[in-house]
Amino acid sequence: MIARMATYEALAPLGRLESLSDILAAGADAVYAGLYGFSSRPSDADLSLEQLESARELTAKRGVKLYVAVNSFIGHTQMDALLRQLEIVEQLGADAVILGDWGVLQAARSALKTTRLHASTLLGVYNSETVSILKGLGVDRIVLSTALYIEEIHSLLRQTPDIEYEIIASGGICRNDNRQCELPHDGKSLDYKVACRRTYFLQGDGPRRPAKSIAQPQLQLERILGAYMAMGIQSYKIEGRTLPRQTICERVRRLRKAIDSFMEDSSHFSGYNPYFCQASRR
Amino acid sequence: MQMLVGLSEYQSDDILSLCDIPGVEGAVIGDLFCQKRMFSHGEWDIPRYCEALKKKGKKTILQTPMYMTPRYLPQWLDLVAYLNDHSLVDAVLVQDIGLLAALARKKTDTVLCWSQMGKGRGSQINGPFLQLILQLGATAIQLDVPARGSAAAESGLEVWQVYGSLTYQTFWRECYSCDQLDQNPQQCGRLCGKPISITSGDLTLSVNGHILGEQLIYKPEAEHRWAFSQQYMVYAKDKAALKDVIV
Fold first, then answer.
1. ipTM of this predicted structure
2. Quick one: fold of B3-167+214-246?
3. What residues of chain A lie within 8 A of the CB of B180, using their CB?
4. What does residue B204 show for φ and ψ, rounded to 5 degrees?
5. B93: distance to nearest CA of chain A, Å?
């Protein structure tokens, strides 16, 4: 059995307040919601401060954590307004804010007293030097870039183990550079489409032909989750604040089951997984 | 104000003939993703090209790659150290916070410039971010919008004005050309030089020069040199295109 001293979190997206009860019932340990006006998702997949307050009441009752994501990039003129909202988010009792802008991170550390800081994938963390800087800025958790290969993740965790890490375990991930993709992101939440999911055609020297998909296939780490758990990654995120409630709940149940099964019995796994053996010796 | 130039691809004699263009004070060497795309001998050409520029008395600006993973960070630190030791580099363009901090700790005279590719989707910059890169050791920043340039200049950073967005042709660290054309990236044959267009309806995947990046976008507001910028950097696909866009 994997040591209980470590806790592994199933982190679910919350795009609509009315989905919250079902998501919690499905087994989420934590939920994350976009802060209205400061998120890169359609605005109807974000929560206002009032909705966040309601979400906090329900999550607190169930012992579930609430994270608030700010993943738009902030210019000079928006900074003060954002910091005022983050202070309210702290008063509401959110457990953490997920920040995707280095300047906001720098400013939020001074503005927030108790709320934990999570560094979004949008910060582009690829090496332990960057992890050290984030630690110095008071960051508690790093959401690893989806562009990292598994051996690179292992190397990062080995070099800087004394901070929490999160990875995307389920859902769509960007195949483009996720910090800088300027492809159109269209639509409201339920018909939200990113341009990379369209069908494309390739026009080169020869005749026009269908192009290979440019979207990354939906990521489903459940079957190999133990490798990441044994490496020491604590949080497993389900992508997709714009997804329908049923889809989110189904993914939460799958992830919950995978985490629990690896927690209960990892013996079938440890025999061939090098990361597990190394983590077990720690 | 000094003019620096950068090409998407260098042929062997380009670097010398660039030096002969009136007004050009130096060149940007190094590809954001794949050195095989920029140079015929990959990264082996970097010191050679820097040396050629230096012999002509020109400035050399090293563009570091995008993904400074545990595998590549030590390699690029070593390369910069080598170029420093041999006085072959004047400035390094970085877009990775960790690399910036690691280079700053070396305490050399080389200028560390926050690259245009360090921007996020919205291309926004704010005061705390400018202060952070200053604290970490950057003394300059590449920008392509005057409104952001004035704020950066006020913060104490040198502004290096960019004319023409940088381009790339990779997807999630992989070569998109090789992927689409079923080519082993290790035997690439520089397929990225081929004209390839990926379309879906009215959408062509050259967005601000990103992704398939065959096109460079020249913003009208960057045609004129800004009073507060110290360097004027012009990027072009090749030498012929450069002559067309130098203003």
1. 0.91
2. TIM Barrel (3.20.20)
3. 202, 211-212
4. -110, 135
5. 16
